[in-house]
């Protein structure tokens, strides 16, 4: 299987890379930094190719897509959580919300993600049983909102809407498009108190991706395959 993973430098993206390689898949792992991190370099082998891709720069997305061959599975994983290590953006309560934070988070989590889907669509259409899985969050559910963080929740709800539209677009016919919540996973974003170790989360995500059928197109699922309310 030919796989593309965005945001592969750490956390879920890095573990997806590791587990796909262990299964014998061919992987194009992308990361924002021009120089990939040591953890990704250490996975080097004939089935791994690493390329720069900054989802906030359309030209970077287009270059990465142009250099890819047919794609069977695209993990649109790159994203930012306000306040996580390595980020300069912050969440806030009413009275402290800053426009620059909101615009930055939306640029990465929402606009960048749908531009990735658009750029890689020709590669997916050339693939075998092509699937696009965009990483969302339970925070993206309007039905579950009980005080969701403003910027992050809005960015994931908008990601959900855009990919639901993409799933219904005649131009994407034949590609199975879903949004998937990885739950509270023990990453830099999730923090050390998160309930699920990253390898376990990714094993579940892979099972979900493997089981996707045309009837799942446009669905919002969690990492165990359960439906998440919109």
Textual characterization of the structure:
The protein has a single domain, classed as Rossmann fold, CATH 3.40.50. The protein has 6 helices and 7 strands; from the N terminus they run βαβαβαβαβαβαβ. The protein has helices spanning 11-22, 38-41, 58-66, 99-125, 150-168, 198-211, and strands spanning 2-5, 26-31, 48-52, 73-76, 131-135, 176-181, 220-222. The chain has a 7-stranded parallel beta sheet, with helices on both faces.
Please name the defining characteristics of this protein.
230 residues, alpha/beta, Rossmann fold, globular
Structural class: alpha/beta
Helix content: 25-40%
| CATH homologous superfamily identity | NAD(P)-binding Rossmann-like Domain
**Strand percent estimate:** 5-15%
The total of helices stands at: 6
Work out the count of structural domains. Answer: 1
Task: Provide the fold topology.
Layout: E1 2-5, H1 11-22, E2 26-31, H2 38-41, E3 48-52, H3 58-66, E4 73-76, H4 99-125, E5 131-135, H5 150-168, E6 176-181, H6 198-211, E7 220-222
Brief sketch in words of this structure:
This protein is an alpha/beta fold.
